[in-house]
Specification:
Length: 265
């Protein structure tokens, strides 16, 4: 018989982390982890005395940097179609966060903790999430400068987009809502950004501003009536170009209107 394949401690930790994330501490066995590595459970026990020791070592791993695909965003050409760039981020980021959440839910369940833990110091000004958000914000800033995304607050845009990705994971992993296909979710998200933020789409802000102007002009009843008359005049002139409501024809229609309290002759 040949010698069993050699495995490293890091290989054991990485594999164990994935198995524990899926099955939890109680559901996972050393045999499950060994099977993934094509070794015997005894090979794992060369590095760790028990499943408990392996769990503690594997699930306490620290995240020290943003994932590679976020780091690569810093080198992405800002002129590339943002639909392609943002879809690529979404397709990689959601599985990444699902893995992190699943691992920490496993810790939460095993320790009966009162709150979930995260594999980084949230107080650190240079924490992986903060570094990652800065990279995404810079991408939006560069894309706006390149003219492929409508100018706005880059950090706000980054938080909106990344928050949409995290919310998918939260809804499915934490709230346990009815599953929605990831591909369809990303399609809907990119479509929303294409129509609302990416240059060439519908200008929602213009519609909002015009609505606000109409509301400002409608504080008094008389102003509302005058605005309606002016709008009607503009529509008639613009649509058919045939007559002005203030013309003789318009006046004849108004004078034929019967007064409300007119006496019968």
């Amino acid at each position: 018989m040949g010698r069993p394949p050699r495995i490293s401690r890091d290989q054991v930790l990485e594999t164990a982390r994935g198995v524990f994330a899926v099955k939890g501490f109680e559901g996972a066995t050393l045999a499950d982890i060994a099977s993934e590595l094509s070794v015997s459970p005894a090979a794992i026990l060369r590095y760790f005395q028990s499943k408990e020791d392996l769990f503690e070592a594997a699930m306490r791993g620290r995240v020290t940097a943003p994932p590679d695909f976020i780091l690569a965003l810093a080198r992405t050409d800002a002129g590339v179609d943002p639909r392609i760039v943002l879809r690529g981020v979404a397709e990689r980021f959601i599985p990444f966060v699902e893995k992190v959440i699943a691992e920490n839910i496993a810790i939460y369940m095993h320790q009966n903790s009162q709150s979930l833990v995260v594999p980084f110091d949230t107080r650190d000004v240079d924490s992986p999430p903060r570094r990652g958000l800065a990279i995404v914000s810079d991408y939006f800033r560069r894309a706006m400068a390149a003219g492929v995304i409508r100018r706005a607050d880059p950090r706000g845009a980054a938080m909106l987009f990344m928050g949409s990705l995290q919310s998918y994971v939260f809804m499915h992993r934490v709230l346990n809502v009815k599953p929605y296909p990831l591909e369809r979710y990303i399609d809907a998200l990119i479509d929303l950004w294409s129509r609302g933020e990416i240059v060439g789409g519908h200008r929602g802000k213009a519609g909002h501003a015009s609505g606000a102007r109409r509301r400002v002009g409608g504080h008094r009843g008389r102003n509302r009536r005058n605005a309606s008359l002016h709008e009607g005049a503009a529509r008639a002139k613009t649509v058919d170009g045939l007559r002005d409501p203030r013309s003789a024809h318009g006046q004849r229609r108004l004078t034929r209107r019967r007064p409300r309290n007119a006496r019968s002759r």
